[in-house]
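Bug #77: duplicate submission created two jobs. Keeping one. Sequence:
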Amino acid sequence: MSAPEPPAPARAAAATAEPGPLKPEITVSYIAVATIFFNSGLSLKTEELTSALVHLKLHLFIQTFTLAFFPATIWLFLQLLSVTSINEWLLKGLQTVGCMPPPVSSAVILTKAVGGNEAAAIFNSAFGSFLGIVVTPLLLLLFLGSSSSVPFTSIFSQLFMTVVVPLIIGQVVRRFVKDWLERKKPPFGAVSSSVLLMIIYTTFCDTFSNPHIDLDKVSLVLILFIIVSVQLSFMLLTFVFSTRDNSGFTPADTVAVIFCSTHKSLTLGIPMLKIVFAGHEHLSLISVPLLIYHPAQILLGSVLVPTIKSWMVSRQKGVKLTRPTV
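Kept job's structure:
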C-alpha cells in the first residue's frame, strides 16, 4: 500500500476553504493535542509503575505483539482483502489501527475490573504510548509508504512538541502538586475525553466538508465485522500464548496480556493521523476504522470481563476448568 499525494482538486479546495471559527489548524493540531498529553503527564502515577519493572518477559511479549506482530499480521490480511470491493481508504485505515500503541486508560480499567495484574497493565500502557511516539510513525511510513506528502522530519518535530514536551511538563508539575492532586482528584479522564471529542468532531467536519467523499455502507459494515473479528481472534491468540505451560505467566499476567496486547490508542492515534496525513483528501476515511475500533474494544472487553474473571479466579484456586471462549 502507498499513501499518495492528495489530488490537485483536493489541495486547491483545502487552500481556498473558508477557515472556521475553531481554527483547527492551531487549536486542534497543537493546543488540543498538547492539552491531552499534559493532562496525561499530570495524572500518570509513575510511582505505581516501579513494581512492574522487573517483569521483563511480560513487557517484551506485550510490546512485541502490539507493535510488531499485530501490524504485520494486519498487513498480510489486507493483501487478501485488497482484491475485494471494500473501500481502499478504509483498508488503509485498518492498517493504521494495527500500527497504533496501546491506550493508557481502557486496558488498565478492564484489567483492574477483572482483578488482573494492574501494575503490569499500567506500565505497558504507559511505556507502549511512549514507544508509540517514535515507533508508530515509522510503522505508518513502512506499511503505508513514504512520499513527498508525508514530511518525515516535521512529523517527529510536531510529535515532540505536542506529545513528548507536554507529557514531561505534566510529570514535572505533578511532582510539585502531587498532594493536592491526591486530595482533590481532578477529573483527568473527563478533561481528556472532552478535548478528544473536539478532535474527533473536527475530523468528521473534514469529512462532511468534502463533497467528493465516497463511503459506501457495505464497506462500512464489512469493516465493522472485520474489526470485531480481529479483536476476538487476537484476544484468543494472546490467551493461548500466555497460558502455555512454559510461558511463565500467572493468570493475573494473562489478563494484562489479553487487554494490553489487543487494545489500541485513540487518544494518541487521532492526533498522530492528523499529523501524518495532514491535508490528505482521505484523512477522515483513514480515521474511521480507529474510531470504530476504540469503542468496540471497550464494549467487547466489558462483555468478556465476567468470563475472564471467572477463569482467573478458578485458575488461582487450582480448579481445572475449560478455557473461556473469546
